[in-house]
Amino acid sequence: MAALAAFVCDPWQGNGRRQRCEIGRRRQVTLTKKLFSPNGRFRRRQYWFYSLATTAAFLAALLLVVSSPRIFGFPRTEEVKAVHGYVLLFLCIPFLWMGICITAKRCHDRNKSGWYQLYGLVPPVGWVGLVIELGFADGTRGDNRFGPSPKGVVSNRVATVFR
């Protein structure tokens, strides 16, 4: 757990270009907070990166668990199959929670509640809508009710004068 609490400078903070970390701008952001907390906002790039990375990690872990009886030479008894099922269930829970948190952060960047991702339960309209809304649409400019902009962009002051 201590290895996950390393100092990280988020290269996506700022004006949209990758930047070098400066000592004055360093802050402690843990990987566990990014993956397991639904609070905050993710840009599109962060959303795609963390979604694809967790999916790849899940598929690698799933492949390891599914192929472990063959690798380690376990007999194919009912007890081994039951343990195998429990391991798969235990493996799915944290990855499901990571997916929910990552998607909630992207919903927050679009100034929508994390519950918005429940539209994905409506096949196929909800799936396509969520992919377009979360994967390709730009986030809210400036601060919103879920926190500061992950791009570091402040709201347009000229537009606020004419409201």
Distance between the termini: 48 Å
Structural class: mainly alpha
Number of strands: 0
Q: Which sheet architecture does the biggest sheet show?
A: none
Write up this protein.
- By secondary structure, the chain is mostly helical.
- Helix content is 51%, strand content 0%.
- Helix 2 runs antiparallel to helix 3.
- The chain starts with 30 loop residues before the first helix and ends with a helix.
Short description:
This protein is 51% helix and 0% strand. The chain has five helices and no strands.
Main attributes?
163 residues; mainly alpha; 5 helices; 51% helix; elongated; disordered N terminus
Task: List the SSEs and their pairings.
Blueprint: H1 31-36, H2 44-72, H3 78-109, H4 125-135, H5 157-161
Helix pairs in contact: 2-3
